[in-house]
Design the sequence.
């Protein structure tokens, strides 16, 4: 019932202790380097020297590897095959499958793109695994992100599972009164229509009540908001963010200069 | 001048024909604990919304007459200022959980964050409010993992922690067991002793008789009766007008007709009934 849409795993690690903004900048740096640094092996190297060490540093290696095996590697593998077969570059055919052929150029091209995707998804996975959503939002709110925006993000993460649970309750209630859930697809789809009323209109009423409830607790107050949790932002974090920013600028600059 | 003052208030929700509140006037003194009773559709919840500023600032619609709390007129104020003085907790606890917080402690602190209370004071106030309503041991739970009664206590605590001058409660114990109900009435009574003015809509008349200073009976958007709990709750008018009354009152009323109830006044609670029948 009280599951939530969050990958966050509570551990005490170097990565968990970093300021959420620093982690966000780190994530973006990894992605931008993988995509813009003008050296072929950049994304491959990033996986080895950044992504994997960071997962160890964040004590989430096991969870990260599970996600990698279940999601990242299959997706990147699929992308690799598609691009290797269909990228019309090169003449040196190394593999043929009926009318499809791979050239050494298209394989190299596909390999790099797949690795870029691996870096991108991995970086985000690590970010989500080690950052509590409410910490991220209160830190960003403190830095000027509108409170309403942060509220929408966080409450969606929490309220969606509640709506899903409610849909399940309504289905069970209808089924106990004879809702057809086992015959042909069309019939079943048709019998789901009575579910829409209670779920959609019920949710709209809930939104109104929730609006009243948070309004009663000063949500639109013009006072400057404070935060219950102090989210530390030591000099180390600030310097790290500058270093990462410089890396991004160098990478993009080199990319533009060499192209 | 009364602390809360409603002068001939008539209010119609948008897109409806009939006014929900009709020429309603009432006065409440500071530190008074007033209970509002009434059948369905009497305008109890609308009265709560009107006191808390949501009628008309949130619901719009047509309003006539004047609502004053602590000398300030609702019509001249804005909702975000009004809620600093008037706290509202209503019936459905699930919809009162902000959804923005992961623990009960954070949930209760939500309102204080919004109005900019400094961190150390915030922690102190949340801890005090939680021990007052007896939910300290829930601090680290997710608000969504709680039972209905526990969620209602969290909703009440979330408002109490903001220390409103006027506390408006719309059936705050509807999902609670008798122990929870007694604790909530006890807490509310204590807040009233400390000077908070309380307006509470409730059906549980025996608890009202024990704890409230005054009862206002609403019917069709108007005050039908008001006065001391025992006078109002045992009146014949109330029984004839379709109000939920205590079973002890109706039993004694029948007994009185048969000459078995000798006292002048009818009872509301079990204790009073037992004493009355013994004498």
Sequence:
């Amino acid at each position: 019932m009280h599951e939530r849409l969050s990958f966050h795993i509570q551990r005490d690690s170097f990565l968990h202790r970093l300021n959420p903004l620093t982690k966000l900048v780190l994530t973006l740096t990894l992605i931008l380097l993988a995509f813009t640094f003008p050296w072929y092996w950049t994304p491959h190297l990033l996986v080895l020297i950044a992504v994997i060490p960071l997962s160890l540093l964040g004590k989430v290696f096991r969870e990260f590897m599970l996600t990698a095996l279940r999601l990242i590697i299959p997706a990147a593998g699929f992308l690799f095959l598609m691009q290797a077969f269909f990228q019309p570059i090169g003449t040196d055919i190394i593999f043929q499958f009926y009318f499809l052929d791979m050239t050494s150029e298209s394989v190299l091209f596909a390999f790099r793109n797949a690795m870029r995707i691996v870096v991108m998804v991995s970086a985000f996975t690590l970010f989500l695994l080690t950052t509590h959503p409410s910490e991220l939002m209160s830190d960003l709110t403190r830095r000027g992100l509108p409170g309403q925006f942060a509220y929408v993000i966080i409450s969606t993460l929490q309220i969606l599972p509640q709506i899903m649970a409610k849909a399940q309750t309504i289905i069970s209630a209808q089924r106990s009164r004879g809702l057809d859930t086992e015959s042909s697809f069309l019939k079943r789809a048709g019998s789901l229509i009575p579910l829409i009323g209670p779920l959609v209109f019920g949710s709209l009423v809930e939104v109104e009540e929730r609006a009243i409830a948070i309004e009663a607790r000063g949500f639109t107050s013009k006072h400057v908001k404070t935060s219950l949790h102090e989210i530390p932002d030591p000099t180390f974090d600030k310097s790290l963010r500058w270093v990462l920013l410089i890396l991004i600028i160098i990478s993009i600059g080199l990319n533009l200069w060499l192209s | 001048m009364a602390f809360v003052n409603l002068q001939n208030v008539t209010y119609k929700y948008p897109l409806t024909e009939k006014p929900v509140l009709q020429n309603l006037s009432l006065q409440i003194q500071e530190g008074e604990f007033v209970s509002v009773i009434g059948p369905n559709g009497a305008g109890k919840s609308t009265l709560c919304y009107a006191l808390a500023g949501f009628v008309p600032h949130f619901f719009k619609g047509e309003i006539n007459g004047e609502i004053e709390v602590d000398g300030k007129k609702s019509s001249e104020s804005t909702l975000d200022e009004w809620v600093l003085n008037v706290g509202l907790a209503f019936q459905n606890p699930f919809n009162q959980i902000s959804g923005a917080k992961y623990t009960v402690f954070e949930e209760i602190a939500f309102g204080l964050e919004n109005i900019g209370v400094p961190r150390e004071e915030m922690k102190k106030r949340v801890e005090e409010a939680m021990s007052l309503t007896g939910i300290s041991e829930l601090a680290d739970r997710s608000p969504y993992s709680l039972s209905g009664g526990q969620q209602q206590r969290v909703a009440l605590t979330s408002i109490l922690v903001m220390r409103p001058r006027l506390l408006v409660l719309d059936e705050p114990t509807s999902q609670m067991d008798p122990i929870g109900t007694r604790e909530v009435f006890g807490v509310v009574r204590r807040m009233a002793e400390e000077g908070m003015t309380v307006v509470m809509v409730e059906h549980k008349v025996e608890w009202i008789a024990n704890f409230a200073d005054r009862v206002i009976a609403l019917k069709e958007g108007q005050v039908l009766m008001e006065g001391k709990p025992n006078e109002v709750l045992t009146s014949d008018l109330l029984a004839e007008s379709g109000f939920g009354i205590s079973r002890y009152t109706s039993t004694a009323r029948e007994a009185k007709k048969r000459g078995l109830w000798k006292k002048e006044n009818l009872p509301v609670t079990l204790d009073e009934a037992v004493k009355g029948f013994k004498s």
About this structure: The CA atoms of residues 16 and 194 of chain B lie 40 Å apart.
